[in-house]
């Protein structure tokens, strides 16, 4: 699909977002009842092809730790995970648990926002002018009972396929491997990175694209600072047609918000989200730790792998924590 005429006026986000939304829309593509958008593009054949990519058996977790040392600062009540023990070894030693014949155990609980660390944005996470994915009214989709239509549970069995790493940090900033905050990754940047990395990073239908900017590596070294919601490198608004044309199934980055921050328009908040989630039907991952994967891919000159990244099957949720696994 080619997008030949999209009006972009950086001083008029309203018109530019509307124009882009029309140009890349997937509404109705998979039927009026569709709940998973571009994840439809990962079919059984795609998963079978992805499984054949495993060569060495190296297994890498792409998740941040889920603990109190996470990136959140309380914006919109997003906090870091709070892990609490319900039963401990101390209780067992002192015979406080009430079990027979000496058996003891430990139990725990965790309280956290579903999007506080490595996670997927579901299709009910973002709306455009009160409209949700596939042309539905937002209020008919997400209510106080949760996402009644496109809840993250629908994606739980689907996100296993061919992962492709595009290491924009190394490609554009070889000296540091890290892009500057505020750098907007363009379609030309993405294509140049693919060409430089070679044929194993070619993007095909149903692929899960991972974009490494290097910002997370900087945050791990220097401290979280403004990582959660502050300035960041990320995808330019102009990448929406690129994402649509390549028919990718999902995309994830090592940044808090996927797209460049500050956003490119005057007085706009996450305009690329506003297009690609409710109109393109694209599942977005954020705060993925891609550093070890990038090292391994660079060492082997192979940028494709089997990726499994199932969200938790939380009924009605609009996002989910995830522990993505790249199997090389």
Automatic annotation (TrEMBL):
Gene Ontology MF terms in the entry: hydrolase activity
Superkingdom of source: Bacteria
Top-level EC class: hydrolase
SUPFAM superfamilies: Putative cyclase (SSF102198)
Keywords: Hydrolase
Record-listed E.C. numbers: 3.5.-.-
Protein name, per record: Cyclase family protein
Matching InterPro entries: KFase/CYL, KFase_sf
């Amino acid at each position: 699909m080619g997008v030949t005429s999209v009006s972009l006026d950086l001083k008029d986000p309203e018109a530019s977002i509307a124009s882009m939304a029309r140009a890349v829309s997937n509404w109705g593509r998979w039927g009026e009842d569709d709940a998973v958008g571009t994840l439809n593009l990962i079919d059984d054949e795609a998963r079978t092809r992805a499984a054949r990519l495993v060569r060495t058996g190296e297994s890498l977790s792409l998740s941040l730790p889920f603990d109190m040392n996470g990136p959140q600062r309380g914006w919109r009540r997003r906090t870091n995970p709070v892990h609490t023990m319900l039963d401990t070894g101390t209780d067992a030693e002192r015979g406080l648990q009430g079990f027979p014949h000496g058996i003891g155990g430990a139990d725990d609980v965790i309280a956290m926002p579903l999007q506080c660390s490595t996670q997927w944005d579901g299709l009910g996470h973002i709306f455009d002018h009160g409209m949700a994915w596939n042309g539905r009214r937002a209020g008919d989709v997400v209510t106080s009972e949760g996402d009644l239509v496109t809840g993250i549970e629908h994606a739980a069995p689907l996100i296993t396929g061919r992962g492709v790493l595009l290491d924009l940090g190394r490609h554009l900033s070889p000296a540091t491997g890290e892009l500057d905050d505020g750098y907007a990754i363009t379609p030309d940047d993405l294509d140049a990175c693919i060409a430089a990395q070679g044929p194993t990073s070619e993007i095909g239908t149903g692929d899960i694209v991972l974009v490494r900017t290097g910002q997370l590596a900087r945050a791990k070294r220097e401290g979280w600072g403004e990582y959660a919601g502050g300035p960041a490198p990320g995808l330019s608004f102009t990448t929406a047609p690129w994402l649509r044309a390549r028919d990718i199934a999902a995309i994830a980055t090592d940044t808090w918000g996927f797209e460049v921050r500050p956003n490119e328009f005057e007085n706009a908040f996450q305009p690329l989200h506003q297009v690609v989630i409710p109109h393109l039907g694209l599942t977005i991952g954020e705060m993925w730790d891609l550093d070890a994967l990038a090292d391994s891919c660079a060492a082997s000159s192979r940028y494709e792998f089997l990726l499994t990244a199932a969200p938790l099957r939380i009924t009605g949720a609009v996002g989910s924590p995830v522990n993505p696994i790249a199997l090389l």
